[in-house]
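Per reviewer request, we include the raw input and output of the structure prediction for the construct analysed in the revised manuscript.
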Amino acid sequence: MTPLIDILSWISLLVGGAFIVVGALGLVRLPDLYTRLHASGIIDIPGAGFIVLGLALQAGWSLVTAKLLVLMLLIIFTSPTATHAVARAAMHMGNRPRLANTEVEPSKR
């Protein structure tokens, strides 16, 4: 493997890992379900994309690369669908978004 492809692969893997870490921090730090879903829904596709790109560069042109691309397509189609389903189920169950200037009653926390 050429050094250029190796360097590009590792940069891609590190960038993807950084995206995933930022998404995980968003899940921990954000205040309610909807903002957490937004953080995870936005950040997981680029994070997984960079990781899959780095792994594909490591694998070269092979069956492994084709499987990685199929995996990325699966992530692209299922991640927004799952995020939407969770948000819709939460809304249906009565979990309302937390607004910036409203106080939450102690019994509703």
